Amino acid sequence: xxxxxxxxxxxxxxxxxxxxxxxxxxxxxxxxxxxxxxxxxxxxxxxxxxxxxxxxxxxxxxxxxxxxxxxxxxxxxxxxxxxxxxxxxxxxxxxxxxxxxxxxxxxxxxxxxxxxxxxxxxxxxxxxxxxxxxxxxxxxxxxxxxxxxxxxxxxxxxxxxxxxxxxxxxxxxxxxxxxxxxxxxxxxxxxxxxxxxxxxxxxxxxxxxxxxxxxxxxxxxxxxxxxxxxxxxxxxxxxxxxxxxxxxxxxxxxx
Length: 255
Fold this sequence. Notes:
Elements: E1 4-8, H1 13-21, E2 25-28, H2 51-62, E3 67-71, H3 78-90, E4 95-98, H4 117-127, E5 144-148, E6 164-167, H5 169-175, H6 181-184, E7 193-198, H7 203-213, E8 217-222, H8 228-240
Parallel strand pairs: 1-2, 1-3, 3-4, 5-6, 5-7, 7-8
Helix pairs in contact: 2-3, 4-5
């Protein structure tokens, strides 16, 4: 029987291994899955929760799932712990809190590859479903950096050149060590870097702190969707930083 198992954050590898061994299907509840207004989650969560956790609740309440595993440890956030309580009290399926303290390094070849940034993050987020490391990738010299969590609105990723390296919690995702604060805090001071976090996420504090210390940084947070203002800030920052595409040597001019 193929069951749909929801996950929130990055459960420990042992949990992912069990889901795969049972031949169940992983459903990443952090990602938008439904064409429903995120405001429907306001019955359960205040609007000051980040858009990702509000998306989790929206998915959990409307998808046909058999079980949910939600990381509530330092690899996610305290807010996820409260969401786990709400889901436990609101759903009839088992909701299992986990604490992912895995520290075995799996490497970050996708983060350092020359793939388009959108493709990088799609591969990284999908890789959470498997116990194996990322497939080898050809690395490239970095001309820009994206630090932070995967945005709810992936469209902003298309604004970056293919030679963008990935840092922050997204790099921890690929390495399968979401609680590795040292890796999450790492960034390259020699390249212009956008420090991103979802609005109302606790990681906005670290994003802004690191951006303040970085010599070529843009701190940015977005709520549900990235509007024209956020997109214009990214485009202007990259253009003023002289960021060029590896393929054509052209500037990323504002659209």
